[in-house]
Amino acid sequence: MNLRLLFLAFALMGSIITAIAQGLTGRAFYKSSSKISFSMDSTKMAPDVMADLQKQLKKQMEREYILTFSQTESNWKQVESLGGGPATASSGGATIMISAGNQDKLLYKNVAEQNYIEEEDLMGKGFLVKDSLRNYDWELTGESKKIGDYTCQKAIYSRIVDSKVFSMGKEEMEASKDTVNVTAWFTMQIPVSHGPSDFWGLPGLILELQNNGMTYIAERIVLNPTDPVKIEIPKKGEMINREDYQALSEEKMNEMMKRYSGKPGDGNRMTIKIGN
């Protein structure tokens, strides 16, 4: 596998030299879908009601994104739409709302310098998280398939991550470990090392990516568009590194736990998981 990846890396170097000479730029339009799964006391909610809620939420959690890229830089941003607000589902007298975050959030990646800047919002305050790109130790499987007009190859990646769970009524967050499994399909026909969200590092554009219940699929790609591609660097917000931002997020969660711990409730439980 390592020899194959090395061979592809050399092939990519040759392709990139050609791409640079040609000034390769582009826009890739992705659609995302999420796996929604939850459970509640069957004495309080019938199975058919839970199934209906999950179906509604899955549909509403679909999002559209655009990846704008040059050889070395990219922007990743959700496409503004009327359905970009919180996902809300109602059935059998129950209502569930899920917020997927700020759709205006911009992610900038520079694969040449291997760093990124991402807009984040924490309790109403804007931040610019700037740090080194995560190093993905991709493993090639040798599998291939067609996505649209492009021949793609399969790569996988996994790692153990630390997570913390915030629960109503408890005074401290519970630490846990989770396994992140990622599957990517990339094409050497577009020789840039970009991909959806913060994923990168393969010898070709990632057209499909599955990440623990979240799937991104490129539905349309425009190479060297007539209107010039502009890569934007986020500038609004307080600059902070990834480690400090995660620590600040945990601090805010602890404050929320203290605020709600010990308060009487209706028997229902709210859980928030961070870190994965």
From TrEMBL:
Source species, domain of life: Bacteria
InterPro entries given in the database record: GLPGLI (IPR005901)
Identification of the protein by name: GLPGLI family protein
Species name: Algoriphagus aquimarinus
